[in-house]
Amino acid sequence: MYLVYITFPEVFHHLPFWRTDGVILTALLHVGPVEFLYYWLHRALHHHFLYSRYHSHHHSSIVTQPITSVIHPFAEIVAYFVIFLIPISATIFTRTTSMASLFGYILYIDFMNNLGHCNFEFFPKNLFSLFPLFKYLCYTPSFHSLHHTKFRTNYCLFMPIYDYIYNTMDESSDDTYEISLKRPKDLPDVVHLTHLTTLDSIYHLPYGFSSLASNPQTSNWYLRLMWPFTFVIKIILAWIHGRTFISERNTFEKLNLQSWVVPRFTNQYFLKWQSTRLNKIIGEAILEANSSGVKVLSLGLLNQREELNAYGELYIQKFPKLKVKIVDGSSLAAAIVVNSIPKGTSQVLLRGNFNNVFFAIAKALCEANVQVAMLHQDEFTKLQLRLNTKARESSALSTIASSKIWLVGDGWNEDEQMKALKGSLFIPFSQFPPKKMRKDCFYHYTPSMRAPPSIKNMHSCENWLPRRAMSAGRIAGIVHALEGWNVHECGSTTFCLHQIWDATIRHGFQTLHTPS
Ligand SMILES: *[C@@H]1O[C@H](CO)[C@@H](O)[C@H](O)[C@H]1NC(C)=O
């Protein structure tokens, strides 16, 4: 329209902005001839002869989308244009055309056409009770959707009045409208609380670009072009948005699963002065989950960072009456790592900060008679103090050269891997994958498993994980709820690795294959 306007400036130059007589004429001609002619044309199009040749094309869309509104064969489009030209040419002949009547009318047609096919009901109910006549003058998305499902009712263009006059009204129109307005309450049973990682990660959310969300997150050069826009979003998130938002909804067996995102980025979790604010957001999310009857809330990525809240311990102490169970996923992460070690391995090298997962892995390996090797004397002594006597005999001080299986956690000096043997296998037990990787070594994903096929709506990738893979923390929450374990599993509490591993396998989660 704008193009037409600038192509023929001399035509539009003399056009007044508003002429009441022209606008009234357009409106009357629309309610009268346009709606009337369209109604009968439409009924004719539904006659077998024309329907099979023309109109069935438009009706191949049962579940309509806004774009459906313009999907018609050419001859039909010409016919519609001729009808719509009636009010426009009438104002031209009577010299009452104005910008408002011309462009306003075209906008009205496009808007109403898209509205009718948008397949989402949003007209508030009190609009129809305040203006009872409105029902006859304006259709609703649910009204027109009935035409696309039942084919022989609700023929009107935008005004149902002719359907009422000629008795082609669908009797279920009013009920369908009311049912569409009532949205089912989808209260979650399990919530996974995650956060944004890099700046670009906002585009990888299911709300971002679907094509990006469907692939593991990598850095894309072209997203740099978006940086000015990204920064604006970041500032908005930082200053205005102090609450979690829902990024994904899944169902599994009888459970409703949701992922909630703390609108903060990884680097903000390492800033000390952000701690209070972060704990406030996470604490509020926990209380919200508690009051809406969520059974289990799992703390993903850095939302359980030791320096921030000691694996969630802070919240259990702060809110002693929590009904929702908090899960940090440490036990399952350790179980996944232990079960990823190739069968027959006699020694593994354990690297990284001493934390829950570290000790859980060390203990489990010693019990399974796999020697746990450390690189430095002080670390070795510290580990021995934590292990029981039987396990102690199974740990050893070693050198880089002697182990081909490396279990690596947070705070590990990634340069050490340069000295590792060719073909070594690195199994991370950290939240984030190593930044550097050697081409001649093998690397596992961060602790994660493949989701069972019956988990619905898993179309986007969780961070850097492949499609349909879930992080240990997210799975731990789901398994915890399925098993109905009525305890928190966070802070210093770790579960028996066998128990949680067996439960996870029983519910259909599968091990991921190593990327080579
Ligand atoms: C959590 O929810 C339960 C039951 O709905 C309620 O009794 C309890 O006070 C809540 N806890 C907190 C800390 O709000």
Could you describe the 3D structure shown?
This protein has 516 residues and is an alpha/beta fold. The chain folds into 3 domains: 2-181, no CATH class; 190-331 and 476-511, Leucine Aminopeptidase, subunit E, domain 1; 340-450, Rossmann fold (3-Layer(aba) Sandwich), CATH 3.40.50.720. The protein contains 24 helices and 14 strands. The protein has a 6-stranded parallel β-sheet. Strands 2-3-1-4-5 form a 5-stranded mixed β-sheet, sandwiched between helices. The protein has a 3-stranded antiparallel β-sheet with strand order 13-12-14. Strand 2 (245-252) and strand 3 (255-262) form a beta hairpin. The longest helix is centred in the first third of the chain and has 26 residues, at 20-45. The protein is elongated and about 100 Å long. The protein starts with a helix and ends in a 5-residue tail after the last strand. The mean pLDDT is 86. The structure holds 2-acetamido-2-deoxy-beta-D-glucopyranose (NAG). 2-acetamido-2-deoxy-beta-D-glucopyranose binds at residues 287, 290-291, 319, 321-323. One of its GO terms (cellular component) is membrane. Belongs to the sterol desaturase family. Residues 29-168 form the Fatty acid hydroxylase domain.
Give the structure's gist in a few sentences:
Helices cover 45% and strands 11% of the residues.
